[in-house]
Structure formats: C-alpha cells, structure tokens
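User: Round two. Same drill as before: sequence, then structure, for each protein.

Assistant: Same drill it is. First protein:
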Amino acid sequence: MISVQNLSFQYAAGNAIQFPDFTVTRGEHCLLLGESGSGKTTLLHLLGGLLRHYSGSLKIEDTELAQLSEASLDRFRGQNIGFIFQRNHLINALTVEKNLMMAPYLAGLKIESERITEVLSGLGLAEKRKSRVTQLSHGQAQRVAIARAVLNKPSIIFADEPTSALDDKNCERVIHLLMDVANQHQSTLLVATHDQRLKDKISNQVRLSSL
C-alpha cells in the first residue's frame, strides 16, 4: 500500500531531510510522529505527490510516484488519496455541496449526488449541504474537509496535524471520526502529528528524528 525506502528530500535552501524506511498495509492506521520541524508535513506532501524530485523510493499501491507525469499524478492522487490539511482549504464562496463536488470533478470522476448525501449524513452535516462555508463553525468546516477527503472513497487518507489546535474533547472526537471513516471505507489512515494525546489511540507508529 505505502512503501518508503531510502527516501530523502532537499529544499532549495537547507540540508536534505532523511526519512526512515517503513511500510503501511491496506486498511492499517498509522501515526507519523515527530516534533515540529521534523519533516512530517514534508513527508505527507511527498506521499501525496504534492512535492516531487525526491531521492529513493516512494510507492503507493505499487506505483512509484516519481515515474508518473504531472497529469497522471493528478489523476492518481484524485482517485486514490484523500488529504486533510492543517488548514481546510475550503472555498468560502461556495456551498458545502459545491465544495464536495470539486473532489470528483478534479479527479475526472462522475459526480454522484447520492454519494454526497451519504458522506454528509455520516458526518452529521446533512442539514448543512446548501450552507456556505462562512456559515459553518470551525468544527463543522473541519468535518466538511474530512467529507471532501473521503468522498471519492480513497484507498489512503492523509491527515496533517488534525488535532493540534483542539481541546481534549474535540481531539477525541476528531481522531475517532477519522478512524471510523477509514474503517468504513477500508482505507489506510496515516496521521502526522506531534500531539501526544494520539499515541494511545493508534499503536502503529513511525517516528521522525528532529532536523
């Protein structure tokens, strides 16, 4: 499912970041641990194909990402990967429904109204379907971002620091929501975090060294 071997990446300014070798199998939940600045977000962006020109091997579904063209990578990412960023990147001018419709549209997939209904209902957002993003609470917007990430039934879900700014109650709610959604769709879940509260929630863990 996910295989990282001898992976390193270097920004234009700075030393190369070396990542540990690891694999994550289909349907497995895994924490990517490390202090701020250890390269967690960089690794997620590499795994999601948002950063390129790495050294080593990085395979998703037995596909070496470096071998894909930009167009092929866009399609591959849209059809296989759901990404939950630290910021939700929702389009404020659009409704919740229109934001979700962007996911299959950009992946070249058919837009299915029934699927949008299913996902929104599962996340307790059915009544917010026609609401604009600016009308949502922070927690509701976060759930919309999760809905968008899982709408295409991705085989992999990446979540970047989804609980770092949350109190204990909402931290518990969000991590269980992510795990439940991943289980529902038999998706692999990889959560990058420095939040110590999550270590007891997911036992499979990969630790990055501080740079």
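Second protein:
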Amino acid sequence: MASKAGSDNGIVETIKTVVYALLIAGVFRTLFFQPFWIPSGSMKDTLLIGDFLFVNKMAYGYSRYSCPFAICPITGRILGSEPERGDVVVFRHPVSGADYIKRLVALPGDTVQMRDGVMILNGEPVPQEPAGQFEEVFERQGPLGTHPRCENSPVGEGGICVKSRFRETLPGGRSHNILNIDERGAADNTPLFTVPEGHFFFVGDNRDNSQDSRVAQAVGGVGFVPFENLIGRADRIVFSSAGRSMLYFWTWRSDRFFKAVE
C-alpha cells in the first residue's frame, strides 16, 4: 500500500512539475521573448530562411497579441514604446491573423511611395548605393521546400542564383541591405500612401519577393498595420539552419550564431 501511495505521489509531483514549467514558459513567452523561425525569403539578405531568433516583446509594450492565440485581456496597448523607423518587427496580420516579419519604414503621418524601385519618403528619395550581389544555391529551401527567385533566371537545380544588392539608408541614418530581382517588379511603382495615425508601414528587404504594406489588405497584401498588432522587435539571430528543419544541426550556418539584426 505504501508503495502504491508513493507511486501516486510521484505521478502528482511529475504533473505539478510539468504544469509549473508550462506556466513559467508561458509567462516568459508572453512578457519577454517569443521564438520565431523565418519561413520565407522576404527579408533576405537580412534574414535567411531557417534563421531562428527571439523577438523582444518588451520593446513596444503589450497588447492582446502578446499572448498566444491573442487571449490577453488588453484593450489597445500598455507600457507601450513607439517603434523606430528601420526596426525589424514581428506583427500580426490585420486580416489573416498570421505572424509576419518586415522592416518598419514609415511612421504615422508619413507619406511613402515606390517609384521604379526607389522608396520616396515624405517627398524625398531614400538613398541607395550598389553593394555587390547576393548569391545563393538554387535549391529547395526550408520546410516549405520553395526555390529562391533569381535575377539571372532561368537557373538549373544546384546553380548559382543571383540578386542585385543595394545599401539603403533611411532618414535618421539607419542602413540595411535590400535585394532586387525584377527591373519592373509588381510593387516597384505604387500610389502615394499616407500612413494614418496609430498605424505603420512595413516593407520586406527582398523587395520583389515580399508581401507587405505596398499592397492593400483587400487584394491580399498587408496594408497599414495598427500599433496594437505589433508583437516585438527582432534584435539578434540565435542560430540558422540551412536544412529543412531547425533540428538538423549539421546544416546550421556557422556565420550566423548570435548575429545582430541590422
């Protein structure tokens, strides 16, 4: 009898340990950092498919989207800090509910337009300087198994996929790389947008391969993103897997451990 009681107590203690661990992990994920694995190439070459990072949820305060499944009983935003132009941000899509990661380029009240692939912010072209080429192997990438898009298409399996790279400097001095695939990409020329109060405008660094604010939500894009939908800021890559799973440690990229996100 004593043995059975001891066994029952052991099971109860194990259950308690698991529950406590889950609660601690939930609190940590909600208040501090959320793991995020890059599934697409829309932010190359800043972020590659297979990059694993933690999103800093303290950067902008908290909203209902800070909790898993948007269950936080929060209206608006608490302890909020305004994001800065140039931040790489994870946010909840206003319509689909999916989590996206893009670069914040325009703030409330800004005007923004694309003209022949050049961003015009508040009436001024954002400077771009040639920065060589971005090269990668033309092969299936990540868990989705998609091939990269190439400026030098067509490229055979295992060939070198090339994209033109430029260094873009936003107002305020923050610089980052952007990539070009098409001379006349679908979103290289846009209407003039005025960012409404309480909203932000996001663009992917891989300009011709990004679903972002340049396309309205009504036709499958992102459109303007409310402040409430911001989840956190991407500051640093922890590690990066070039394989189909982040568990394939033999495919981890040696040059991306703890790499800062520009």
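Residues 2-31 form the longest helix (30 residues).

User: Perfect.
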